[in-house]
Write a structure and sequence with these properties.
alpha/beta, ABC transporter transmembrane region fold, Rossmann fold, 12 strands
Length: 573
C-alpha cells in the first residue's frame, strides 16, 4: 500500500528531507533550554552572579530564536511537501481513472471515486504532514529529554517510566478497535455521497414526480447511518486524550511530591526539580502528540488503502500489445464475437456475432430493449473488449491499434448525451480543438443545430449549464452529433441519438449526413423504423444475437421481428 503512494513524493523529495532535518535541530536546541534554566536557578541566583545570569539567559534567548526559525522554516517545507504530495496523488488518481475502461469504472461507484479523490487524499495528506513534523520531532525529544532527566535524577525517572506502558496499552487497544470502525464509516460516506449525487443529477425528475419528501428521507437515512458509524468510531478514539491527560497530570503530581521531598531533604536542588518537571512535561507532551499521530494514521490507513485500490487497478484495455498505425478506412468486420461484462458469467450478452461492413456503408441496427444493440457498437472503439472472437476495423484487429488512434477514427454519440460546462463552441471543439468557425458551423448545419444556436443571443458563445441543462433534449442530441462530426471520423456511431427530435428533423439529419460524411461508415441504432429504413443494410438484434440482416424491403419479407415492429409503428402513425 505504501509503495503505491511513495512515487508521488518524488517531485517534493527535497522538501521532504529538509523538513525533518530542521525539526531535529529544533528539538535538540529546545531540549537544552530547561538545563540552562536550572543553571540560572541553582548557580546564578544563589551566587548573585548577574553576569552569569545574563549570559545564560542571553544564550537561552538565542537558542529559542534559532529553534523558532528552524521550526518555522520546517513548517514551510513540510507544508510544501504534504500539499504537493496531495496534489500529485490527486493528479495521479485522476490520470489513472481516465485510463480505465468501462468495466474498470464499473468496479467503483462514481461517488466512491469522488470520495477517494477528495476526502481520502486529504486524510493521507494530513497524516503525511503529521508524520513529517510530529513523528520525527517526538522520538528525538523523547530520547533527549529522557537522557537529560536521567542525568538530573535517575530515581525520579521511574515515575514516568511506569506510565509509558499504560499509555502504550491504551493506544494499542484504540488502534485495534478503531480501524474496522473507520473502515465501515468510509463505506457510509460513499453511500451518502451516492445519495446526494443521484439527487442533484436527477433533480428535475425529483421535482417532476414530487419525490422531494422521499429523497429527504433517503438522505436522512444515509446521513444518520454515517453519523452513527462516525460516533461509533470516535467513541473509541475519544479515550486517547483523557488517558493522556490523566497520565501527564498524575506524573507531574507524583514528581512534585517525590521531588519536593528530595529538595527539602537536600538531595536535589530547586533548579533541578524545575528543569526535571520541564523535561517530564516535554516527554509526556510528545507521547500525547505521538498518540494523535497514531490515531490519524489509523484514520488515513483506510483512506490510503482505498486510494491504493484505484492506483493498483489494472485497466482491462491497454496499449501493451498495440502497434503504431492509423485507421485507413471505415470497414468493420465482426468474426464470431461474443461478450460478457463479467468473464465468469455463464451467459453472454452477445453471442456469435458475424457480419462485415464496407467503407462508407450505412448500417441500421434495430431491436428490442435489452437486445445488446449499444453493447455491440461499444466494442468497436474498445470501450469494452470482446470476450471471444475479434473485431477488425480498416482490416486490422482493433486490439492492434493504439487506443487513441482507434477512438480518433470512431465518432460516437452515446445514448446518454453529455455536455460540459462552458460555451457551445467549447463543447463542439471536443471534436476538434483546432476547428475553425466555418467548420463548426458546417458540422452544426449537418446536425440541424446551426439555426437554434443562432437564435440564442450569444450564438455559439452561449454558456451551457452543467450537463447542458439550459438546452432541450433534442438540442442536446444535435450538439452531440455536431461534436462527433467535427472529429472527421472514419466511422460514425449514432446510438439512438435522434430519439428526442421529430421525424422531419431526423430525416433532414440523415440526408445531411450523406453529403457531409461522404465516405464515412455510419452505424445508426434506432427504435424508429423510419430512422433506419434508408440504410444500405439493417441488422435486427434479438437477445444478443443477429436475428436478421438485409435491406428494409428484404427484412419486411423475411424477418418476423422487423415486420412486427414496422407494422406496430405504422399503426401508431
Amino acid at each position: 500500500m505504501i509503495k503505491d503512494l511513495v512515487p508521488y513524493l518524488k517531485k517534493y523529495r527535497r522538501a521532504t528531507l529538509i523538513s525533518p532535518a530542521l525539526i531535529i535541530i529544533e528539538a535538540l536546541i529546545e531540549v537544552r533550554i530547561p538545563f540552562l534554566m536550572a543553571k540560572i536557578v541553582d548557580v546564578g541566583i544563589p551566587s548573585k552572579n548577574l553576569t552569569y545570569v545574563l549570559q545564560t539567559g542571553g544564550l537561552m534567548l538565542l537558542m529559542a530564536i534559532i529553534s523558532l526559525l528552524c521550526g518555522t522554516i520546517s513548517s514551510r517545507f513540510s507544508s510544501t511537501a504534504s500539499m504537493g504530495f496531495g496534489s500529485e496523488l490527486r493528479k495521479g488518481l485522476f490520470d489513472k481513472i481516465q485510463g480505465f475502461s468501462f468495466s474498470n469504472t464499473d468496479h467503483f461507484s462514481t461517488s466512491s471515486l469522488v470520495m477517494r479523490l477528495t476526502t481520502d487524499v486529504s486524510n493521507v495528506q494530513t497524516a503525511f504532514m503529521m508524520i513529517l513534523r510530529i513523528f520525527v520531532r517526538a522520538p528525538v525529544m523523547l530520547i533527549c529529554a529522557t537522557t537529560m532527566a536521567f542525568q538530573i535524577n535517575a530515581s525520579l525517572v521511574t515515575v514516568f517510566l511506569v506510565v509509558i506502558p499504560f499509555l502504550a496499552s491504551v493506544l494499542g487497544i484504540i488502534i485495534v478497535l478503531a480501524y474496522p470502525r473507520f473502515k465501515a464509516m468510509f463505506k457510509k460516506y460513499d453511500a451518502m455521497n451516492a445519495s446526494v449525487q443521484e439527487n442533484l443529477v436527477g433533480i428535475r425528475v425529483v421535482k417532476a414526480f414530487v419525490r422531494s419528501s422521499y429523497e429527504k428521507s433517503k438522505f436522512k437515512a444515509s446521513n444518520d447511518n454515517l453519523m452513527q458509524a462516525a460516533v461509533k468510531a470516535e467513541k473509541i478514539v475519544q479515550f486517547n486524550n483523557p488517558a493522556m491527560q490523566l497520565s501527564i497530570y498524575g506524573c507531574i503530581a507524583a514528581i512534585l511530591w517525590f521531588g519536593g521531598n528530595m529538595v527539602i531533604g537536600g538531595s536535589m536542588k530547586t533548579g533541578e526539580l524545575i528543569s526535571f518537571i520541564s523535561y517530564v512535561t516535554q516527554i509526556m507532551m510528545q507521547l500525547m502528540l505521538l498518540s494523535m499521530v497514531f490515531v490519524m494514521i489509523v484514520i488515513s490507513r483506510e483512506s490510503a488503502s482505498r486510494i491504493s485500490e484505484v492506483l493498483t487497478e489494472k485497466p482491462d484495455i491497454s496499449d501493451e500489445d498495440s502497434s503504431t498505425g492509423k485507421v485507413t478506412d471505415g470497414s468493420i468486420e465482426f468474426s464470431d464475437v461474443s461478450f460478457a461484462y463479467d468473464t465468469k458469467a455463464r451467459e453472454k450478452i452477445l453471442e456469435h456475432i458475424n457480419f462485415s461492413v464496407r467503407p462508407g456503408e450505412t448500417i441500421g441496427i434495430i431491436g428490442g430493449t435489452g437486445s445488446a444493440k449499444s453493447t455491440l457498437v461499444q466494442l468497436i472503439p474498445r470501450l469494452y473488449d470482446v470476450t471471444d472472437g475479434k473485431i477488425c476495423v480498416g482490416g486490422r484487429d482493433v486490439r492492434s491499434y493504439k487506443i487513441a488512434e482507434l477512438r480518433k477514427a470512431v465518432g460516437m454519440v452515446l445514448q446518454k448525451n453529455v455536455l460540459f460546462s462552458g460555451t457551445i463552441r467549447d463543447n463542439l471543439k471536443w471534436g476538434d480543438a483546432s476547428a475553425t468557425d466555418e467548420e463548426i458551423a458546417e458540422a452544426c448545419q449537418a446536425a440541424q443545430a446551426h439555426n437554434f444556436i443562432e437564435s440564442f443571443p450569444d450564438g455559439y458563445n452561449t454558456v451551457l449549464g452543467q450537463g447542458g441543462v439550459n438546452v432541450s433534449g433534442g438540442q442536446k442530441q444535435r450538439l452531440c452529433i455536431a461534436r462527433a462530426l467535427l472529429s472527421k471520423p472514419k466511422i460514425l456511431i449514432l446510438d439512438d441519438s435522434t430519439s428526442a427530435v421529430d421525424t422531419a428533423t431526423d430525416s433532414r439529419i440523415r440526408t445531411a449526413l450523406k453529403d457531409y460524411g461522404r465516405g464515412v461508415t455510419v452505424l445508426i441504432i434506432a427504435q424508429r423504423i423510419s430512422s433506419v429504413c434508408d440504410a444500405d443494410r439493417i441488422l435486427v438484434m434479438d437477445d444478443g444475437r443477429i436475428n436478421g440482416i438485409g435491406t428494409h424491403d428484404e427484412l419486411l419479407m423475411s424477418n418476423a421481428i422487423y415486420r412486427e415492429v414496422f407494422e406496430s409503428q405504422q399503426k401508431g402513425a
